[in-house]
Structures are given as C-alpha cells and as structure tokens.
Recover the amino acids of this structure.
C-alpha cells in the first residue's frame, strides 16, 4: 500500500474539517458535520450510551425533584435516563446539533423535558438555577473542556452535583471502537492521528477527575462503568459505522471503496465471534462527579 504522510490519508483531514495537534482534537465536531443524523447515531453509539446513562444516573443518587441540565444531550440518552431514574421536576438538554435535538424532541415523550440549541462553552442559563448538571460522552468533543466544566459549575446551585462520563477509548475500554482503530491503523499507520485514544487524552479516570477538581468542584469522585455491547453478527457491528456519526465513521466515509472493503474484511477476521455468529464485546466509560461548594 502506498505510504501516506503522518496525519492521515490525503484529503480526509480536510474533508473532515480536522486539524491535528489541537488540544482536544475537537475541530470537526465544532462544525458539527458528524453529528447530523440522530437515526444513524442510535445504532452506532446511542444504544450503548443509553446503558451507561441509566447506570450513571442511578449511581448519582440525587435527591428527587429539581431542575436538571443535560449538556451535549444529543439524541436524548442521558435526559431519558434522568427522567426514568431521578424524578426530576424538569430537564433541559442542550446540544449544537439541530438534527440530534429534533430526534430527542421526537423520542423523549415527556412534558418535563425541553431541548435547546447551545454550546457547552456558552450555556444559555443565567445564574445558578440547576439542581444537577450532567453530560455523557461529550467533553472530549468540546474544543475547551475546562471552559465547558466551568460553565457547568456556574449554572449549578451551590452544594449540588455536576456529573460527567466519557468512553475509555484505550485497550479494554470501548472495545467496538478500539477494534476499529486497531484495524484501521494496521492498514494505514496515518490513521493513528485520528484514533480517539490518541486524540482524546481527557478520556481517562485521572484526567476527567482532574478536570472537575480544576473547575472548583468539591468531593470529586471517579468510577468505572462497564457495559456489555453484544452484536448479533458482523453486520450488526459493521453497518452502524457506515452512518457517518462520530470520528471512526467519519474516517470511514472518507476512504476509497477498496480501502473500506479491506478494513471491513480485516475487522471481520479480527473480531471474536462465537459459534452462533454473535460478537460479545464490552465498553468501559469513566465517570466523574463533584459538588459545587455550598
Ligand atoms: C457522542 S455524542 C453524545 C450524545 C449523548 N449525550 C449521548 O450520551 O448519547 C456527542 C454529542 O456532543 C455534542 N457536541 C459536540 N460538540 C459540542 C459542544 N461544543 N457543546 C455541546 N455539545 C457538543 C454533539 O452534537 C453530540 O450530540
């Protein structure tokens, strides 16, 4: 195969609006092209995000009632978990993606939920009115996570919770995406610069806890959440990567057809398949929470 310069196949970075060497690698997400189809996000990550969200909200053990915020709510996974488990008075989800917000409005059938278009770095709330602020799988996509964390602290009431979680993209973490980048990099070493484990150093227990402590939260605690991510067969694993939602699918969309086919076959051979064709993977997320000083 023709060698490519570090930083990825020619043209792909530009097509993705991606810059290398940025602090968070959040270039393409800011422009939002990969967060443009809620229907495609759900089978890719939404179905697993919902499992983590449910456990995360239950473990927060927040007092019932109150007004919650879900930052980077996307298609509504965390908002729905809050509605299901926390008995909130209301939840306001914010996200820059119009399409994801539209999906959330269609699917979160609860009068207590509202969705607004906004950026995590500029939350559209004056004063400290929230009883709890949560955010799932978002902060690594925000250009300035420290600013987003400061915003979450600003809008939460004194003494109340801010809680966040992110995938662990490394070995033993979000295995479906880890397997993708391992195969992609084996075929094209330049893809390593796009690997989420490389681009997102925030996605570790220590870094996430440090972010919240650095934002001034007290009693910061971190924990692991591990969920099964079972795939019925290889098509159930592969097809959602074709939907363009998130860094790995965006990379895939920019590949020539023959390269995409080689990557598919490499993954088909590499993934551990049971006799009945099922693929039993797992995903680990790191969660962190803290309280604003009373
Ligand atoms: C992986 S999805 C997570 C969505 C949802 N929270 C979940 O758990 O399924 C990442 C989300 O971050 C949102 N996002 C990207 N950049 C953002 C920013 N600067 N501020 C707020 N949200 C952002 C995207 O629009 C997308 O909905």
């Amino acid at each position: 195969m023709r060698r490519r310069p570090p930083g990825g196949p020619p043209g792909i970075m530009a097509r993705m609006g991606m810059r290398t060497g940025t602090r968070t690698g959040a270039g393409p997400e800011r422009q939002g092209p990969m967060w443009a189809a809620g229907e495609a996000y759900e089978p890719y990550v939404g179905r697993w995000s919902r499992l983590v969200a449910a456990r995360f909200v239950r473990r927060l053990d927040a007092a019932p009632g109150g007004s919650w915020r879900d930052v980077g709510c996307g298609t509504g996974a965390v908002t729905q978990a809050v509605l299901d488990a926390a008995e909130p008075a209301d939840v306001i989800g914010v996200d820059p993606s119009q399409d994801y917000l539209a999906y959330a409005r269609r699917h979160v059938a609860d009068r207590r939920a509202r969705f607004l278009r906004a950026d995590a770095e500029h939350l559209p709330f004056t004063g400290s009115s929230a009883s709890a602020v949560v955010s799932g799988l978002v902060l690594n996509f925000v250009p300035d996570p420290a600013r987003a964390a400061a915003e979450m602290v600003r809008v939460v009431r004194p003494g109340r919770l801010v809680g966040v979680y992110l995938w662990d993209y490394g070995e033993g973490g979000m295995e479906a995406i880890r397997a993708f980048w391992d195969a992609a990099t084996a075929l094209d070493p330049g893809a390593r610069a796009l690997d989420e484990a490389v681009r997102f150093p925030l996605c570790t227990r220590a870094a996430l806890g440090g972010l919240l402590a650095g934002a001034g939260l007290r009693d910061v605690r971190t924990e692991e959440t591990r969920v099964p991510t079972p795939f019925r067969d290889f098509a159930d694993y592969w097809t959602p990567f074709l939907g363009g939602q998130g860094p790995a699918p965006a990379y895939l969309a920019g590949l020539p057809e023959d390269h995409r086919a080689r990557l598919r076959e490499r993954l088909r051979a590499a993934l551990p398949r049971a006799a009945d064709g099922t693929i039993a993977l797992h995903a680990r997320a790191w969660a962190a929470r803290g309280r604003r000083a009373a």
